[in-house]
Amino acid sequence: MADSDNTACILMIVRQIPRGSVATYGQIARLAGIPRNSRQVGAVLGKLPPGSKVPWFRVVNSRGEISQRGDGSCQSIQRAKLEKEGIQFNVHGRIPLDHFSWDPSGGSAQP
Predict the structure, then answer these.
(1) Mind listing the pLDDT tens digit for each residue in 2-22?
(2) More confident residue, 107 or 58
(3) Where are the alpha helices (DSSP H) in 21-101?
(4) Which of 11, 17, 59, 110 has the greatest number of beta carbons closer than 10 A?
(5) How far is C-alpha 4 from the geometric centre of its chain's CA atoms?
(6) Residues 6+ apart with CB under 8 A from 104
(7) How far apart, in whole angstroms, are the C-alpha atoms of residue 29 and residue 61?
(8) Which residues of 9-41 are buried (b: 16+ CB within 10 A; e: fewer)?
(9) What is the value of pTM for the model shown?
């Protein structure tokens, strides 16, 4: 699959994550048919223009954390957007993935 095909597939999948759920970079990579390429997912989302309608903020790392980048302002924006959708963080700043993970097979959260 070419990089432009990967990009289109990644964005199509991220657009499907429902409000109030999150997915991991690795999960998106697997669903896009590029397992072990979670960094590519991050790179694609990092190139989105300001104001993009793609819900990039619903993608977190495998520990349920917002990934560190830049000066930290992006993380606080991401957290605020997630909290506005009802996503909760534990005392360690992690999202309980067992409760808020997107299940692409039809449910909103994985058991």
Answers:
(1) 668 899 999 999 999 999 999
(2) 58
(3) 25-31, 38-46, 73-84, 97-100
(4) 59
(5) 19
(6) 13, 16, 31
(7) 12
(8) bbbebbeebbeebbbbbbbbbbbbebeebbebb
(9) 0.90
